[in-house]
Amino acid sequence: MTKMMLTPINPLRIRGGRLVTMDGLMERLERAVTRLEQMSVTMQSSGMANGDCVNGISGGLSPCVEAFDMLMRGPVSEYLSNSKAIGSDVEKHAEMVNKALQTQRSFLKMASTHQEPAQTELRDLLKPISDHIQEIQNFRERNRGSNLFNHLSAVSESIPALGWVAVSQKPGPYVKEMNDAAIFYTNRVLKDYKESDKRHVDWVCSYLTIWTEMQSFIKQHHTTGLVWSKTGPIAPSSVFIAPTTSAAPCPPPPPPPGPPPVFTDDDSQPKSGSPAAPHSALFAQLNQGMNITKGLKHVSDDKKTHKNPNLRSQETPTKNRKPGSGNSPRAAVQKKTPLLELEGKKWRVENFEQNHDLVIEETELKQVVYIFGCNNSTVQVKGKINSIIIDNCKKLGLVFENVVGIVEVINSKAIQLQVLGTVPTMSINKTEGCQVYLSKDALNCDIISAKSSEMNIMIPKGDDDYREFPVHEQFKTVWDGSRLVTEPTEIAG
């Protein structure tokens, strides 16, 4: 048998039973490269249209902004959902918080692509965040009669945490401090709703998680203060300045920056007539540290009103004041309208001055009484109700019969409480001077106090006769080898 020899054919390849030449392979490879180039151009155009340029390179966000977006998609989104489930003032407040966080995201995005501007321009950049903080806190003040006031207070007290962008050295602990301020009010929310409505418990957890995650975010990306880009243009005067054209390519990175500019005294501070001045003060003072007291004037003892009571009755002189112009300090104070009304399930008693005939009758077990801003007045509550709250009052007397929940006093001075029937719990917080007269049926009442002074409990020992017992204000804490033991000191009374 004759042996046949197969000669190799180099310019041919066998593919799926077909012969493919090298020229065909090269043509296919060129088409594939062309498609990849087109895809790359499309992705770059999409990135530039969205404005996602990092240090002059299009196509993505900085790790800092991406981490902030994860916080927005996680705890913030859950907080908004829980707020919507509760509705009413809580939902409106949450929308304000969301807008504030969105503004901060825009600020962080700008910082990731721009160099830090001069101090005056930085104040203008921070102004929108400051405006959001003020709006959120004003909402709480306008709704002091709300049934969800503790929710609003928790947010209002902690929202200044957004000012961490103006805190140098250690912004993380500053956020923690603001978060701790919220816990005082979230504990009240948990106490009121823990057994009755899980929506409020979920709301507390999701809101506090925002600031916990914010601390982790700061620790990872801005440990010692806000980090600006080392390249890119100087930041503009506003976070919300739109690009001239959405399809324009990102500018190339600029050359290394020159020496820092020199500012005169006039340039380093905002002018008093500038609208940015009052809003930027919130952030400008955060970096002063111990220097914040340098501008205070020393007052001699002969000019101190607490050492010279006769000075209190003298009118403070006002420069360039014309007679009859109405510019006296007293004329500038606007008295609020007194209010005593039933709003839903809440009795509102507000802004009364020197009125000792305030009586609340025809009460029901589900109702609460909220007393705010009353001075030198007396309130009497008849019947059996759920709870009573005294907030920001001075020289107020309260006489009530029966409360099934709690009587709470906060931010007040010179308060006298008299129980005619029963009450299970009293809470006294941030109050100077509080006298509590217990009835024989209320001797098992739990009295909880914090950050308060000059408290006395009157125990009945006969007809219209009481024995006075002071509440301890000073304590001693020692380590017994396994735990801390706290006891009142002997001089505490």
TrEMBL record:
Residues 249-262 have a biased composition (Pro residues). The keyword Cell membrane applies. It is found in: Cell membrane. GO terms for molecular function: actin binding; adenylate cyclase binding. GO terms for cellular component: cytoplasm; plasma membrane. Residues 334-471 form the C-CAP/cofactor C-like domain. This is Adenylyl cyclase-associated protein. It comes from Scomber scombrus.
